[in-house]
Design a protein that fits this description.
237 residues, alpha+beta, five-stranded antiparallel sheet, 54% helix
Length: 237
């Protein structure tokens, strides 16, 4: 075993400042394996509705490329400054659909940096621990809300006193309600109300939408669930 470890250290030349070709290949292979682990964890714990294969491929490329960049700039201040100047002119214009996607981007970059800095054991251990934690959180649905909240949008004509018209329905159907905005639309002919609400137990979103539609004269009612698996109920003449 000791002879194997000595051969492994000599072959990769871990004591040298300039990485050898074999070490670069090893680092790229290790970062690729870690990226695959991260990507598999992301895919199996994804709960949204906008899964992107391109995003997963990007995680893998990002991990490998960052590891190579760190190896190139390691110990060379001039190269590091030049690399920073080159990458500073790049501008990315891509909307991230979920907040957890940003976390996985930083996760992939951190593991690439760890491999590039020759911290192979730290990178492997960190990947295993974080992926296991993410899987457990997803499997057992940690920190989930007891009941989801909703966004409610109602269009009414100007002759309706909406404070009085919807008061009884809101009292009977909702645990919480917050009026977020009132907007005049259609050249001032109608008013759109936007609420943040939470339904009482036993009240279905469909029944609430139907009741509100009857009150507001069959004008538009839009109910959206505020969670990743968003549900939209809409009624409009």
């Amino acid at each position: 075993m000791n002879e194997f470890n000595e051969f492994f250290q000599d072959a990769l030349a871990l004591g040298q400042d300039i990485p050898t070709s074999m070490e670069v290949v090893f680092a790229m292979a290790l970062s690729f394996i870690l990226a695959l682990t991260i990507s598999v964890t992301y895919r199996h714990t994804f709960r949204g509705t906008t899964y992107s294969q391109d995003y997963v491929h990007t995680l893998i490329l990002l991990t490998v490329v960052v590891s190579v960049i760190v190896m190139v700039v390691r110990g060379n201040a001039a190269v590091a400054v030049g690399m920073f100047a080159a990458f500073s002119i790049i501008r990315f214009r891509c909307a991230v659909p979920q907040a957890r996607d940003i976390g996985f981007i930083f996760f992939a970059m951190a593991m690439g940096m760890g491999v590039g800095a020759r911290q192979y054991g730290v990178a492997v251990l960190t990947t295993a621990v974080i992926c296991a934690a993410v899987y457990l959180m997803s499997k057992y649905n940690w920190f989930a809300v007891v009941r989801p909240t909703h966004s409610l949008r109602i269009r009414v004509t100007n002759d309706i006193d909406y404070d009085a018209a919807f008061a009884a329905v809101f009292e009977r159907s909702l645990d919480q309600i917050e009026l977020r905005s009132i907007e005049s639309i259609q050249a001032g002919m109608m008013t759109e109300l936007r609420y943040g609400i939470r339904l009482r137990p036993g009240i279905s979103p469909g029944s609430l939408v139907s009741t509100l539609q009857e009150i507001n004269g069959n004008n538009r009612v839009l109910l959206t669930t505020n969670k990743s698996e968003s549900m939209v109920l809409e009624s409009e003449t």
